[in-house]
């Protein structure tokens, strides 16, 4: 029997990520080729005409899975009955701007949209915040939508995760689909820590650790990390616009794996509400390695082979974290704590 359509909200749908994202959703990239969708697109009144143009193009593209389009500048209409909310609308960082510069503008947007989602979205709506500062916008959304379970509110660090996979694949000249289990820890900002200590590559001789294949710890501990951390800025420099197609594609990956599950033996990075795992302060939205099953994510806690379980017992908990990594996990947590304080100061 055909599935009921899922209602998917995209805020900021007239913007450049929105323009890349809505056709992917309508094609089934996000929720699968057998899941019909009704798109809810929200933007602000100055973008209403452009938003209507996007709606016209969606009609023109005749997507078989697309069962309806709501294009509106009314936040209540946009949020009503949605099962998935992808929050892209916001004030983007421009060349030379730090994320903190855009904090106060986004705090007020996320406060009001949180209330609309809380009152009007479907029960168990899953929320992905893309707009920067993504982790802190998600935290504000969580604070102002107290009846939405905290496990349903996440932010996008899958783009950073995919960037890390891409860098390793380029360096080793292997298929990106053969690289797995990198980790993005922390903030979607230049303090994030792209960690390859548990990442592997599929080879004809079995799965091999990335470190063993790259054979260049100096590169992995320095240039690789900064390349991933600074990739957003490099795209802005090259395009004079921030990443859009890769952001849209990664947002689809995030929701796809959350709803439909991660493959056996594979984890992905998601910004989720910290429960204190890995000694990350509870109450931050922090990017962790997660596996997903039955529509729920779970922070990866432990390696399954004996050696690493043994090693993990000497560390904080879960995957073994060396001293180099520990400092980087703490640094990005400190930045998130500062962002949280700044965001709260914008509320008063
Ligand atoms: N987490 C991540 O990995 C990434 C995050 N981003 C962030 O995503 C956001 C969107 O980027 P772009 O699409 O390039 O920006 P954009 O400026 O092209 O589009 C943003 C859209 O949001 C709309 N908007 C503004 N306020 C709104 C509101 N209150 N409600 C609904 N819509 C509103 C604007 O009118 C515009 O159409 C930015 O904050 C950007 O920094 C971008 C790339 C990656
Ligand atoms: O830096 C930005 O504003 C865009 C962004 O988040 C990214 O490309 O990762």
Short description:
43% of the residues lie in helices and 19% in strands.
Describe the overall structure.
With 348 residues, the chain is of the alpha/beta class. The chain is 43% helix and 19% strand. The protein has 13 helices and 14 strands. The protein has helices at 16-27, 48-61, 75-79, 103-120, 134-143, 158-172, 210-214, 217-221, 223-229, 231-239, 245-260, 306-312, 323-347, and strands at residues 6-11, 37-42, 66-72, 84-87, 126-129, 153-155, 179-180, 183-185, 193-195, 200-203, 206-209, 268-273, 285-293, 296-299. The strands form four sheets. Strands 3-2-1-4-5-6 form a six-stranded parallel β-sheet. The longest helix has 25 residues, at 323-347. The chain is globular, with a radius of gyration of 20 Å. Mean pLDDT is 94; it is low at 312-316. The protein binds 1,4-dihydronicotinamide adenine dinucleotide (NAI) and oxaloacetate ion.
Q: Which cofactor or ligand species appear?
A: 1,4-dihydronicotinamide adenine dinucleotide, oxaloacetate ion
Shape: globular
Radius of gyration: 20 Å
Poorly predicted runs of 5 or more residues: 312-316
Number of strands: 14
What helical percentage do the residues reach? Answer: 40-55%
Helix/strand structural class: alpha/beta
Report the sheet-strand fraction: 15-25%
Average pLDDT works out at: 94
